[in-house]
Write a structure and sequence with these properties.
Number of helices: 8
CATH architecture of the largest domain: Alpha-Beta Complex
CATH class of the largest domain: Alpha Beta
Shape: elongated
Order of helices and strands: HHEHEEEEEEEHHHHH
Number of strands: 8
Oligomer: single chain
Helix content: 25-40%
Strand order of the largest sheet: 1-2-8-7-6-5
Length: 309
């Protein structure tokens, strides 16, 4: 549950009236009294403070048992403030920028002879990306996918960014769209960056399954310990179900979580029923009973002979 301060931080900012220019037109240079701001010393929002505390608590809990290098966050955290928060935790950020983000190449031209050295070069044109940055081209179902990787600068960020741009083009309609991923680690290869960002969606799937199948949104506990136990049990059941599905899908590739729950529920019913019998059936008959009862309620029933054997 987000606090009121976090909800206010996520709310879209109201349009503000344009401020009057600090210096009259035609007067070059920095306005009087203006100082260079340190982009690494930025105040953290309440939301980022909460995330930072959670990350630091996790790092202290594992205490180096599992080496962590990257923190993957969605596009809402594709900002310099979030990047500085992650760097304060000694991690690297992997996130997504807006599709219209203004990125620049480093300036590699000659020195003008006066003033500070120029930092920003040409602006990155998403419709004319350089061929030297192209890493991979694939075509599938009439859609061409091109992946570019480049080191770019953003005026709002304190450091250079490792940027991966995924461009998809419909070869029939020539419709075009692109996604801009980035990392603070300039040495991270493009394929690893894409794979790590895709892991964020697996987390979404895990929470979806925990809520849909394992009661994550149904428990009514309000105290910290019961809430922790219920949440951990739900997520543990997600991992256990995936492990069981791996075996069942070798027999039936379409076997689902609902099929798995029906299968084990039927097995439990048979076990409780057998406890009431004076004598247990023969092993062959017992296996057939287990197979038939376990298949009741399944959407994609596994063949009985494959289970009984």
């Amino acid at each position: 549950m987000r606090s009121a301060a976090e909800r206010a931080d996520r709310a879209p900012a109201r349009r503000r009236p344009k401020a009057s220019p600090a210096a009259p037109p035609g007067q070059p240079g920095r306005p009087t009294g203006r100082k260079t701001t340190d982009k690494t010393a930025v105040p953290l929002t309440p939301e980022l403070q909460r995330i930072k505390a959670m990350v630091q608590g996790l790092l202290a809990m594992i205490a180096g048992l599992v080496p962590l290098t990257y923190l993957v966050l969605d596009g809402h955290f594709g900002t310099n403030t979030a990047l500085q928060m992650v760097r304060q935790c000694d991690l690297h950020l992997i996130s997504k920028l807006r599709a219209d983000s203004a990125l620049y190449f480093r300036y590699d031209g000659p020195y003008a002879g006066r003033g500070p050295h120029r930092k920003y070069g040409d602006k990155v044109d998403y419709h004319a990306l350089p061929d030297r940055s192209l890493q991979q081209t694939t075509i599938e179902d009439g859609v061409e996918t091109r992946i570019y990787q480049l080191e770019a600068l953003h005026r709002d960020f304190a450091q250079a960014l490792n940027v991966v741009i995924i461009v998809k083009t419909n070869l029939k309609t020539q419709a075009r769209a692109h996604v801009v991923l980035f990392s603070s680690d300039l040495t991270l290869p493009w394929d690893k960056l894409v794979d790590y960002y895709c892991l964020r969606f697996q987390l979404e799937f895990n929470f979806r399954d925990a809520k849909q199948f394992w009661g994550l949104e149904d428990f009514m506990n309000i105290h910290p310990t019961p809430v922790t136990n219920a949440a951990n049990l739900s997520l543990f059941m997600v991992n256990l179900a995936y492990r069981c599905l791996r075996d069942m899908r070798q027999i039936h590739p379409e076997f689902s979580v609902l099929d798995l729950k029906a299968h084990w529920r039927g097995m439990k019913y048979v076990e409780e029923t057998l406890k009431m019998l004076p004598e247990k059936p023969e092993p062959i008959l017992l296996a057939q009973i287990f197979a038939r009862i376990a298949s009741l309620g399944q959407i994609h029933a596994v063949p009985l002979d494959s289970i009984a054997s």
